[in-house]
Write a structure and sequence with these properties.
By secondary structure, the chain is α/β, with parallel strands linked by helices. The protein is built from 15 helices and eight strands. Pfam families: Radical_SAM.
Amino acid sequence: MAQKSTLDRLKILADAAKYDASCASSGTSKRDSRGGPKGSRAIGSTEGMGICHAYAPDGRCISLLKLLMTNHCVFDCHYCVNRKSSNVERAKFTPQEVADLTLTFYKRNYIEGLFLSSGIIRSSDHTMEMLVETARILREEHDFRGYIHLKTIPEADPEIVHRAGLYADRVSINVELPTDAGLTRLAPDKNAGQIDGAMAGMNNAIVEAKDAKKRFRHAPRFAPAGQSTQMIVGADAASDADIVTRASSLYTRHRLRRVYYSAFSPIPDASAVLPLKRPPLIREHRLYQSDWLMRFYGFAPHEVAQAAGADGMLPLDIDPKLAWALKFRESFPVDVNRAPKEALLRVPGLGTRAVGQILSARRHRRLRLDDVAKLTVSVKKVQPFIVTVDWRPVLLTDRADLKALIAPKVEQLELFVA
């Protein structure tokens, strides 16, 4: 059989990587080629603008070459298009080829970093060795200073996984599914305890490296952008409440930077145990919103779950923060001139930046409704839940049709508009 060209393999393996959502680059340390020893020929940077859409918290856009080392796999996970029993075209790169592609794309200003994952070929240890070797070539042989995100394999030897953290900015281990029962049913080759143990080991190594960096100036860097994970939504019977609870547990126990949610997508020759159609994409969006509520707005997991219906599913027509406010109207209205930050963060329509501006402005004067209107996209959404110098909602907060009054209107947009 003729060897596929580099372009053909790139097309196959880049397309196969599209199902992994956990490739954002936030949290990496800033490095560039100017920081090396005098006379060195360092390559790469984590700064500047690229052509991709992975933005860091400070506004930098880091473009990534995202692909699989190989889509061959010895595992047979029902939801995976690259599973052993799947009838897809297979391809494979060597570590040197991936390193060469990364450098070539970088020099053409296409990318500023690499996101590398892989199917399991031969064994978990062998595959993990190939991933680490790719990063080693880039870092040690070419002094590549760009961003590297490695997907690690929980079944691999912990020592090999640990080496990944020495070369990568971020590492990630996918929990795959929200519940152990779902994982057992849909991914029989994977073990929930093994995944959790690998994440715990990586977290311990990251914490130890940070501590060593404080005490020893030349301590080696270790996954400075932390670790992340991904959960597939809609492949099993897990409710949104189950997913939120699991995500919160992962944040607390393993100090993850991010939990990513990926709506299940039907695949060719799908297993009979999978749903026939994908869940609404808005469900994935509502889960990201609930994630934000826990991370930035002070909501506990059980409070986010309270926004869900009796079936544990978040409403699709309104965001979870508004859903919670409508259920717990006794917490409102909130006086924007007196309420603590924690109470203001629970007001629908007020984001973290708006709350910060309110807290700053009210030190100098008392705020009116017009002042709040300048800080939010929809003052109509905020009005029933706040009190200002010139506004009090009176009975508006308790109206039975309040949801209909403030929920965003559903409309069909025109494809062709003059």
